[in-house]
């Protein structure tokens, strides 16, 4: 629907919350505004980003609710997003199901256990923990330090009835309340000490235990005093090897965002008394992030619907309306909440670690996604529809050019079959460029060489192919789709190259980096695939892999050329002598390892020229070649 057909009039200038609805009456986007009129009108002007434009064109109406302040707008926006789950608001996906440590404080005899659910109000949960193995290790230590029962209620009642404790009671990992080895009150105190230990660290617990031990000794309850003494000793021993790199006074939540082209990851670290107690990551699709939205505000809403906010929240991006968020989150905390962006010190260092974890979470998510056969199948089907291909592109070849101002040109060919990289078919091309050559001419040269091989080998290979183990040449397989890195100029050059060879059955497109637009040969305008489409993501993967493969080869070649060119600068060392030196020593590195006498023994060199060569190559040894820029500097 044309957005102008439902553009509202007489919008108030008050703060409030607005909602866009689709034709089915479903809420597709919820937003807040200091000034409703300015914000809503901004959706009906030109120059919208593609994702916002898509949302506005999907909607058929918009309404709003006036509130008294920005804080109330924030609260209402949060409530409606949770209730309606609008598809154009940021959708967070937990990257996995995390384990928690639970203590059932609502029972007469509390128990400790590991769970992946947080739905019982009578249980105190700690976590989540990023790694299950780490939690199990922690669980084992806690059972030794605080032997709270861990058995299920059914087993506990059977043990009470039979008056026989389990193995954990025998090895000291349970205080065995089932056989009255510890009273109900002392067992509850033990569970309370465990919670204090996790909440506040060992120092508070040790002081309390020492007080109880002294009281027990004064009352001549030496059995209890001895048990408390052993517990204190065990806690101190465990702390000796626990190690920490943070100040004991540091208690905060750290939230970091790492963004890629299509997705972003948000990672939370919960730090208490200098210890990282929990971490968790979420993944979101950036196609759902409108230009007036933001990842950090959405992250705060998501995280603190699950966790109680601490007094200090550290973030790695700037946050608009920071004071409003601080006031809002303080309502859910026992202390005033402050939101900061650390720039130096241990908090900034730890924030860098949190961001690296977000990066890793995103890498793992995208890696799993890229190897998912269902996702790959969907991407290939979308390519057929978006590009109007005659068949599914089961084999895709992508070509990329890398050079230094038109010289030292190289190219790469990467192959994806069934949506997955087939590295055994990757190829590199050294381009014959004479003096200089532009990307379009280089692309035409590479495509010509590749498909000449295809034409020369396909018939021979088919004739010689047998089913007893014979293999067809990899160049004899034609791709259904050729992707070139670039726009109209590159794709037209590639199409002309294939046209001169009489090849018309292969589809060709170009993928330009600026707006990720797809170009077709001899077409005036490109097409832009939906930002969140699997087809675009697959094309980006193919293009990025070709670029990586090309740039690696280019750096290697450029470095070798620059090293070999050092011989060109040595006076009185002509082409023939350079050739003789390289044939004898193998490379410039081999010449560097030689002595002056070794060099002088080469026919036509002599002692004087040998000294000059030795001095020149060892002077170059103290130079640094930047393979990114080609710049040579002296150390």
Outline the structure in words:
The chain has 20 helices and 21 strands. The relative contact order is 0.06. Strand 9 and strand 10 form a beta hairpin. The chain is an alpha+beta fold and 635 residues long. The chain is extended and about 100 Å long.
Task: Estimate the strand proportion.
Answer: 15-25%
Radius of gyration: 34 Å
Alpha plus pi helix count:
20
What does the overall shape look like? extended
Q: What percentage of residues falls in helices of 4 or more residues?
A: 40-55%
What class, by secondary structure content?
alpha+beta
Number of E-state strands: 21
**Main β-sheet description:** 7 strands, mixed
Mean pLDDT, nearest integer? 79
* Regions with little confidence, pLDDT below 50 for 5+ residues: 240-245, 461-471, 621-635
Spatial gap, N to C terminus: 65 Å
């Amino acid at each position: 629907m044309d957005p102008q057909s439902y553009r509202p009039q007489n919008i108030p200038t008050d703060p409030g919350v607005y909602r866009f609805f689709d034709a089915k009456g479903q809420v597709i986007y919820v937003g807040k505004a200091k000034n409703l009129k300015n914000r809503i009108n901004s959706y009906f002007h030109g120059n919208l980003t593609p994702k916002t434009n898509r949302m506005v064109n999907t909607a058929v109406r918009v309404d709003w609710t006036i509130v008294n302040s920005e804080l109330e707008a924030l609260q209402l926006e949060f409530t409606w997003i949770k209730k309606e789950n609008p598809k154009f608001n940021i959708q967070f996906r937990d990257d996995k199901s995390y384990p928690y440590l639970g203590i059932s404080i609502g029972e007469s005899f509390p128990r400790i256990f590991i769970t992946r659910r947080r739905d019982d109000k009578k249980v105190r949960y700690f976590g989540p923990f990023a790694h299950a193995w780490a939690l199990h290790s922690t669980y084992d230590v806690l059972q030794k330090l605080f032997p709270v029962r861990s058995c299920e209620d059914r087993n506990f009642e059977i043990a009470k009835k039979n008056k026989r404790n389990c193995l954990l009671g025998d090895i000291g990992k349970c205080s065995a309340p089932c056989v009255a080895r510890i009273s109900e009150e002392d067992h509850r105190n033990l569970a309370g000490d465990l919670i204090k230990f996790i909440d506040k660290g060992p120092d508070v617990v040790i002081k309390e235990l020492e007080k109880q031990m002294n009281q027990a000794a004064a009352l001549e309850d030496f059995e209890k005093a001895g048990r408390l003494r052993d517990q204190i000793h065990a806690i101190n021993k465990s702390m000796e090897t626990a190690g920490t790199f943070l100040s004991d006074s540091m208690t905060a939540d750290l939230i970091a965002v790492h963004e890629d082209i299509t997705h972003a990851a948000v990672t939370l670290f919960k730090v208490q008394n200098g210890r990282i107690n929990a971490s968790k990551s979420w993944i979101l699709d950036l196609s759902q992030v409108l230009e007036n939205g933001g990842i950090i505000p959405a992250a705060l809403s998501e995280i603190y619907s699950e966790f109680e906010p601490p007094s200090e929240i550290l973030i790695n991006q700037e946050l608009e309306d920071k004071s409003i968020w601080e006031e809002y989150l303080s309502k859910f905390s026992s202390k005033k909440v402050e939101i900061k962006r650390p720039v130096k010190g241990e908090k900034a260092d730890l924030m860098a670690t949190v961001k690296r974890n977000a990066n890793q979470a995103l890498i793992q998510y995208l890696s799993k996604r890229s190897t998912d056969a269902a996702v790959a199948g969907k991407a290939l089907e979308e390519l057929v529809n978006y590009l109007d291909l005659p068949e599914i592109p089961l084999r895709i070849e992508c070509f990329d050019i890398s050079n230094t101002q038109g010289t030292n040109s190289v190219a790469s060919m990467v192959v994806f079959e069934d949506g997955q990289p087939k590295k055994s078919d990757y190829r590199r091309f050294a381009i014959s460029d004479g003096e200089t050559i532009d990307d379009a001419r280089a692309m035409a040269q590479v495509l010509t060489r590749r498909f000449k091989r295809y034409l020369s080998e396909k018939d021979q290979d088919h004739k010689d192919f047998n089913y007893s183990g014979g293999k067809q040449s990899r160049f004899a397989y034609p791709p259904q789709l050729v992707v070139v890195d670039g726009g109209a100029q590159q794709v037209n050059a590639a199409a002309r190259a294939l046209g001169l060879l009489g090849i018309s059955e292969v589809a060709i497109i170009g993928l330009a980096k600026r707006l990720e637009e797809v170009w077709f040969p001899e077409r005036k305008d490109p097409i832009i695939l939906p930002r969140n489409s699997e087809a675009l993501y697959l094309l980006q993967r193919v293009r990025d892999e070709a670029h990586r493969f090309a740039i690696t080869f280019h750096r290697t070649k450029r470095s070798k050329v620059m090293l070999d060119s050092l011989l060109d600068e040595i006076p009185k060392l002509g082409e023939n002598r350079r050739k003789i030196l390289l044939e004898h020593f193998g490379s410039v590195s081999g010449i560097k390892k030689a002595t002056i006498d070794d060099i002088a023994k080469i026919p036509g060199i002599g002692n004087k020229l040998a000294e000059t060569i030795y001095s020149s190559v060892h002077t170059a040894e103290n130079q640094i070649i930047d393979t990114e820029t080609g710049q040579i500097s002296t150390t």
